[in-house]
């Protein structure tokens, strides 16, 4: 019955919009203020995306955008099956690399589900810097999450994100609820957030998943939260299952070398038709190399295409050497784009042998037709704003030619309006808040109802709160969000954007609007 339902859904999608290819762009660039705003500017027609994913951490960022191919005559013949494509040579752009490519979607993939299992696992929340053992721990944790989704419940893995903001900190005095106080947690912590679409929405399936992750966290000393699924409770509310006590498993802290700070980040993005088990296959391959860790990730499905972005940390390899070897590899016309083949050749040239006792390759590899986009290598940079404030925003507007450009540009102009002078990086300097804001995470989708929905987390320096006094009992963060939301709506009204049904700003994700129910 499930196969029949998937076939019917695929037939409906193809009949409604007979398109067999999706064009996309992958941008790997140094994380900087305003990069996404400049990329999707209204006058840059080539960068108008249908759906968008953005993430930035450790000094490197990724922007992924899709466009659905629309031929002039309204029809497009199905192309015959071709051999796996060769690796794509990147285009140099603004200190990073840009990849342009096309792939086939999988219309049977269910990336929106009424029943989801969402969890958050903190590896080392108090970490000031990312060390080599962190990369190994996150890599192994990603494999456990992907394996639970694919093997335990046979369900699609909807999203992955690392680092993330942890749940709000609740404080009381002597456990007196009348003294309850909520404090925003740090903007980003070394933790992995994930969501699994449950085809079997039974309580047994949820208990199986929860027990597996609870046992894993208790074994390694991680903290574990489950999303609140009660009616009326929005995304961003969490139940704590395991509390981290600061003692980690000796599996990762057993040698002194693993405590060294990472030196290099290599962004790698894997793209292909969305399938159950694809993320599991990729991370299982990486586990065969003991010197390769994962220090950041962002994974989701856009236009029925799976995008899995990983930041790799390769122990003992400098950024300049890694960049030279990777550049030569991608310049060769025979370099394959398949994930395991390209990475195997790269690791071989770096002198990294695989672990013979590591997990083997599955004969039915769901990533056999995936493409891999790697590089350039960046030197690791800790958080640009260690003392930052997370501001969540969401929007819902009618689908239009400008795509993401209109609401994002209005948001930045609203930031400049409400906080025109924020202490800058140098002493005595003051700049508008829009020039200091960093988009740490953003997701924007186009729905079947010709609507664009988006959600993003901005990082602002806490010094911006000086512009909002605490008089009147309302905290400065709430005043900031209220002023920003009002100014954002005013700029959107003046810009002439049609079909605006929601613009929300909050310092807590669960206070956002309709998007949290999608």
Write a short abstract of this structure:
With 518 residues, the chain is an alpha+beta fold.
Distance between the termini: 25 Å
DSSP helix fraction: 25-40%
Major β-sheet, in short? Answer: 10 strands, antiparallel
Query: What's the total count of β strands?
Result: 23
Which descriptor suits the 3D outline? globular
Radius of gyration, in Å, reads 23 Å
Approximately how much beta-strand content do the residues carry? 25-35%
Number of helices: 10
Content-based structural category:
alpha+beta
Q: Outline the low-pLDDT stretches.
A: 69-82
- The overall average pLDDT, rounded, is 82
Describe the structure.
There is one protein chain. The chain has 518 residues and is of the alpha+beta class. The protein is 25% helix and 31% strand. It contains ten helices and 23 strands. A hairpin with a 4-residue loop joins strand 21 (438-446) and strand 22. Helix 3 (132-152) runs antiparallel to helix 4. The chain starts with a helix and ends in a 12-residue tail after the last strand.
């Amino acid at each position: 019955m499930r196969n029949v339902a998937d076939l019917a859904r695929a037939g409906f999608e193809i009949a409604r919009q007979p398109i067999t290819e999706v064009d996309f762009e992958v941008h790997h660039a140094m994380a900087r203020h305003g990069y996404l705003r400049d990329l999707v500017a209204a006058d840059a027609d080539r960068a108008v995306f249908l759906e968008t994913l953005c993430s930035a951490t450790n000094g490197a960022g990724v922007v992924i955008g899709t466009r659905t191919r629309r031929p002039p005559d309204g029809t497009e013949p199905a192309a015959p099956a071709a051999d796996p494509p060769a690796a794509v040579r990147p285009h140099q752009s603004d200190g990073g690399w840009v990849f342009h490519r096309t792939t086939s979607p999988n219309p049977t993939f269910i990336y929106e589900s009424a029943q989801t299992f969402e969890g958050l696992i903190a590896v080392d929340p108090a970490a000031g810097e990312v060390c080599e053992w962190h990369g190994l721990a996150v890599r192994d944790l990603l494999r456990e999450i992907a394996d639970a989704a694919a093997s335990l419940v046979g369900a699609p893995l909807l999203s992955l994100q690392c680092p993330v903001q942890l749940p709000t900190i609740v404080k009381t005095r002597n456990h007196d609820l009348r003294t309850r106080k909520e404090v925003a947690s740090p903007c980003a912590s070394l933790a992995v957030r994930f969501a699994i679409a449950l085809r079997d929405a039974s309580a047994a399936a949820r208990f199986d998943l929860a027990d597996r992750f609870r046992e894993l966290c208790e074994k390694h000393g991680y903290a574990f939260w489950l999303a609140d699924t009660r009616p009326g409770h929005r995304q961003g509310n969490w139940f704590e299952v395991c509390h981290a006590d600061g003692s980690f498993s000796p599996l990762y802290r057993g040698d002194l070398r693993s405590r060294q700070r990472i030196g290099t980040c290599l962004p790698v993005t894997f793209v292909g038709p969305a399938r159950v088990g694809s993320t599991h296959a990729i991370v299982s391959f990486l586990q065969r190399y003991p010197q390769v860790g994962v220090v950041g990730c962002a994974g989701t499905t856009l236009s029925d295409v799976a995008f899995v972005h990983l930041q790799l940390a390769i122990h003992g390899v400098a950024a300049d050497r890694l960049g030279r070897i990777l550049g030569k590899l991608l310049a060769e016309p025979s370099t394959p784009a398949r994930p395991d083949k390209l990475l195997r050749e790269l690791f071989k040239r770096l002198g990294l042998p695989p672990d013979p006792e590591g997990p083997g390759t599955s004969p039915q590899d769901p990533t056999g037709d995936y493409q891999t986009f790697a590089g350039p290598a960046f030197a690791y940079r800790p958080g640009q704003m260690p003392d930052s404030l997370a501001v969540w925003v969401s929007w819902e507007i009618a689908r239009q030619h400008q795509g993401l450009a209109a609401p994002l540009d209005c948001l930045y102009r609203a930031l400049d309006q409400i906080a025109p002078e924020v202490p800058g990086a140098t002493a005595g300097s003051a700049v508008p808040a829009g020039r200091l804001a960093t988009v740490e995470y953003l997701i924007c989708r186009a729905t079947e109802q010709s609507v664009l929905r988006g959600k993003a987390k901005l990082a602002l320096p806490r010094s911006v709160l000086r512009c909002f006094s605490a008089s009147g009992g309302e905290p400065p963060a709430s005043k900031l969000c209220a002023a920003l939301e009002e100014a954002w709506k005013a700029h959107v009204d003046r810009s002439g954007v049609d079909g605006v049904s929601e613009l929300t700003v909050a310092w807590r994700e669960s206070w956002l609007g309709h998007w949290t129910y999608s």
